[in-house]
Amino acid sequence: MDCPICEKHRYPTDTIYESKNWVITPGPLASQILGYVYIEPKRHVENWAQFTNDEIYELGILIKNVEAALIEILHVDRLYAVTISEAVRHLHVHVIPREQGMDVKGLPLIEQATQQKVKTEKQINEDQLKWFTNQLKNYFGLATSCKG
Ligand SMILES: [Zn+2]
Question: Which Pfam families match (predicted)?
């Protein structure tokens, strides 16, 4: 099986949070959106109907907790949770924050995140992304220690 998400989970480099069923990892710097993360099921699931009720239940809680964390860490006004899974069929949720005062919103912001077509003026660098990732790891606390 040639799946980039399964591959990433086999050799994790920057896991923010890991539970029994799900992994949270940072979005790419190229998206230029601070706070953009992926929520990915550990199992290779391509359709919503394949999830167990436990997995779906946990996903809802995770989205809720990620939003709470992002509101605390950044100045998040709206939080988008989007699934497309066309290019990579392993189902994954793009969690995309729109910060207060950010004038790019809706589909253009989703496109910026998922296609890295940058439209926002505010630029972020690697240090800021690392800072954010550490903040979010700290927020989720102990759960990150299970996989070095
Ligand atoms: Zn996969």
Answer: HIT
Look at the chain and count its residues: 148
Look up the pTM and report it: 0.91
CA of 110 to the centre of ligand 1 (A): 22
* Ligand 1 centroid – CA 98 distance (Å): 28
Q: How far is the CA of 85 from the centre of ligand 1 (A)?
A: 11
Strand order in the sheet with 37-41: 17-18, 22-26, 37-41, 93-99, 76-83
Given a contact cutoff of 8 angstroms between Cβ atoms, the answer to whether 81 and 65 are in contact is no
Domain 4-147 has CATH 3.50.50.60: no
Distance from residue 34's CA to the centre of ligand 1 (Å): 25
